[in-house]
Amino acid sequence: MTIACVAFIGPQNNPMYLRSLEPASDDQYMKLHYVVHCSLDAVEEKVLLKRGPGDVQESYLGLLYPTEDYRVYGYLTNTHVKIIVLLDDEAPVKDDLVMRVMKRLHNLYVDTTSNPFHKFGMPISSPRFDAALESIVSVYPRPGGSVGGFKT
Amino acid sequence: MLRGGPPGARNAPSLEQINAEVFTLTYGSIVRQLISDFEDIEEVNKQLEQMGYNMGIRLVDEFLAKAKITRCSSFKDTAEVVAKQALPMFLNVSANVANWSPDQTECSLILTDNPLADFVELPEEHRDLKYCNVLAGVVRGALEMVNMEVECRWVGDMLKGDDCYELRVKLKEHRDEKFPYKDDD
């Protein structure tokens, strides 16, 4: 199981952060944006379907949908920030492992928005965030690292 | 300010405590507000220092009343008390005193942990901001009230990539105690 891409999407479905963990061309970034964009529909569906009266929404949404190259996993915070993780492995995925990564990404997001200089709701551009994200993700072996910033 | 010493600290009087994150975020908001109000980083540094000074001149009384300390015999003693007792009492971190100048009038307070600056990442356009300048003011204000004129400046700042926070404290003048009344009163 390797993580190909991590994305943070704001409450109004505004992209805040998207990062490929492998070297990626602009075209590939476009593709990742596309996959993440599509996953937002799946998030909505999941949330609407699951929610019965009096239900407490679980943050971890699990597998949203599989594509040809990726499996898309989602996580929804109480403030409707979505964390989308793309896994690109055929091997069986351990759900609790993904959940742990999501939790840590959520914590990282909280710490980053606590920075008084962070403009709330704006794209995240912070070297410290990049580094911490890498270290969270690097728990899971992947072929090669890369530096790829937020591209729109 | 953050109250209460670390558990088990020597002479730690029981003071009211506040949640560290509330404190950190509040200070962050103040700094941001100052930046948007003044727009000039130098002016913000000055304002933070002035705010700290105003705190320091009040805080020293509380410190002296609640910490069970004896009179300091030298500036060296004073520096130790600030680093090992005053900072733990109000900020819940202690500092090391180091880098004494040969004539013993200048030293550094070294902090490796600073609750003021948790979460903070200084953006490039604010490189000149002395984020924790309020502390420099507090030390200056507090020492001024005990008849020591000092000059404080930051020479190390972890937000700017240094290994630690280093506050340089320089003793400019040690005034005699003055009393507001005359001898023949």
TrEMBL record, chain A:
GO CC terms in record: cytoplasm
Top-level taxon: Eukaryota
Entries under InterPro entries matching the protein: Longin-like_dom_sf (IPR011012), Sedlin (IPR006722), TRAPPC2L (IPR044760)
Entries under Gene3D superfamilies matching the protein: 3.30.450.70
Family classification: Belongs to the TRAPP small subunits family. Sedlin subfamily.
GO BP of this protein: endoplasmic reticulum to Golgi vesicle-mediated transport
Coiled coil regions in record: none
Protein name, as recorded: Trafficking protein particle complex subunit 2-like protein
TrEMBL record, chain B:
Assembly mode: Homodimer.
Gene3D superfamilies: Trafficking protein particle complex subunit 3
InterPro entries from the UniProt entry: Bet3, NO_sig/Golgi_transp_ligand-bd, TRAPP_component
SUPFAM superfamilies (alphabetical): Ligand-binding domain in the NO signalling and Golgi transport
Transport listed as a keyword: yes
Membrane-crossing segments per the record: none
The name this protein goes by in its record: Trafficking protein particle complex subunit
CDD domains linked to this entry: TRAPPC3_bet3
Native source species: Edaphochlamys debaryana
GO CC aspect terms: endoplasmic reticulum; Golgi apparatus; TRAPP complex
Upper lineage: Eukaryota, Viridiplantae, Chlorophyta, core chlorophytes, Chlorophyceae
GO terms (BP aspect): Golgi vesicle transport; macroautophagy
Functional description taken from the UniProt entry: May play a role in vesicular transport from endoplasmic reticulum to Golgi.
Keyword Transport: yes
Entry keyword set: Endoplasmic reticulum, ER-Golgi transport, Golgi apparatus, Transport
Family the entry assigns: Belongs to the TRAPP small subunits family. BET3 subfamily.
Subcellular location(s) per record: Endoplasmic reticulum; Golgi apparatus, cis-Golgi network
